[in-house]
Amino acid sequence: MHVNIFQTQDPITPQPWAEPPAPVGSPAPNPPRDTWAGRHAFLLSCLGYCVGLGNVWRFPYLCYRNGGGVFLIPYFLMLLLVGLPLFLMELSLGQYGAAGPITVWKCCPILQGVGVGMLVVSSLVSIYYNVIIAWAFYYLGSSFQSPLPWSCDAPRNAELCQNASGSATHASASEAFWNEQVLGVTHSSGLGDPGSVQWLLALCLLAAWIVVFLCMLGGIRSSGKVVYITATFPYLILLVLIMRGATLPGSLDGVRFYLSSDWSKLLSARVWSDAASQIFYSLGIGFGGLLSMASYNKFDNNVVRDTLVIAIGNCCTSFFAGFAIFSVLGHMALKRDIPVGSVAESGPGLAFVAYPEALSLLPGSPFWSILFFLMLFMLGVDTLFGNIEAINTAIMDEFPALREGKRKVMLLAVLCFSFYLLGLLLVTQGGIFWFTLIDTYSTSFGLIIITLLMCIGIASCYGIEQFCRDIVTMICRCPPWYSRVLGCFKVCWVFFTPCLLLFTLIFTFLDMYNIPLHYGTYEFPAWGTSLGVCMGVLSCVQIPIGAIVALCHQTGTLSDRFQKAMQPLHSWGRAASSTEDIIEVPFTITLSSSDFTTPPHSES
């Protein structure tokens, strides 16, 4: 049937969600939440948050390892069935509830531990992610030297390059610079031997946190202005690097290696697991950053359009970044007379060893090196903005008095300084081992479980029909075909997305069991692996703890408590604090009568 779901409420009739007028003499209300200066600031912030270092050093490697161009088939299928549905779910939750990762679970209090788990993951990631930015700072400063200190033209590397004589089995000058001068890892025997702090790297880490603090000092108003530069300038640099790479001898060999198709790879479960995990992590799902940034949107912002623009833009960036990487690596392979596969690796090894070495072979190498590490710095800062914003927003939503000017600045300063102190362990001589451990386990099975429960909780506890109705209420001005789009998302939320997340989770556990963690030739001890598993469990354990707390706040039998804890609170949703955003819009959409069965609200 055709119904008008946006009927104007009688302005005289009090709404069930309206706050009563404040009594005379009551304390001053808490400072209001900020809002984005404009839609473009939100779009660029989300795009900068999603387009991170993984787009540069992880996706191209996964693409060539999993069949080249064939990898794009499972990659874009996972985007449609996992990435887009979860992305829309997070944006919609944040925008409709106008709340951060913890407070937003007023829609289903029994799942409030999911929000706490998101903050645990964001905190762990923030600790090690800014260390990558510190590395980029270090290399950026070193790039102003000529010749580059990791090139064979540097006097200190002459003997090393002569001994290596183009062989892939010997350490290159770039590897020596990375391991000895930057990390100092040659002075550490492993995880249990961190050694002393690399003080130059510690200063770079401090500078990185100061930059983050200054950029976020004014809240989303200031960071929303910064992203106009940090989210767009990397695209300009990427375009320049692609054009420069295309002119190099051997570049076509690198691109051919990147896109070579091996159709037999599609029969491997690992290819599909890699595609799902890459979509999952590159979009920033489950960290709370998307949810927090969406909470500052206007109520009638079109979240469906934003989801399509940001998610597709992020995935296309990953694909095109591969051309910039492999065209230059192809030139390096030609110069050293070795296969392209011998210089292609994933993670920090690509960004701080292989690619810098390739850039050192170009005429005017300091210029190209400055551009590349400036791009890495901006990509990293944008992602870190989202993680810190998630933590900041969650705390201020629980304690609204902290939104006041000086208290807000003090909260941000305490967060940044605390993360800096914790990050000092990662800039010791054995810090790379701790970095690898946190990087591997902080965003492993714990993050997948958090997202899986978020999806199942919204679909079954809160109600998928109610959730779709909330989205339709927000987007207002939209063509009727949006109802069919939401129908497709509904099928994903109920079936495809949870099943694929479960598949990814099982494969992650199998990988953990069958493949021991390594950094180079160093194999992590059993106690180190156990510590890493505890990091993953730390985020998961918040979910049952949150459920127990929610049940304790209810009354009645255990069955009654469960039923009440799975119902939205009266204070759920933006309408609970303001009716200004509810407007009349001449728009109709075809929905079944069952879509208008509103679940009862908990009295808590």
Automatic annotation (TrEMBL):
This is Transporter. Keywords: Disulfide bond, Membrane, Metal-binding, Sodium, Symport, Transmembrane, Transmembrane helix, Transport. GO terms for molecular function: amino acid:sodium symporter activity; metal ion binding. It holds the Pfam family SNF. It comes from Meleagris gallopavo (Wild turkey). It comes from the Eukaryota. InterPro entries: Na/ntran_symport, SNS_sf. The gene is LOC100545254. Residues 13-30 have a biased composition (Pro residues). Na(+) binds at G48, V51, N55, S282, N314, L379, D382. Its main location: membrane. The chain crosses the membrane at residues 41-60, 72-93, 114-140, 199-219, 226-246, 275-296, 308-329, 367-388, 409-435, 441-464, 485-510, 530-552. Belongs to the sodium:neurotransmitter symporter (SNF) (TC 2.A.22) family.
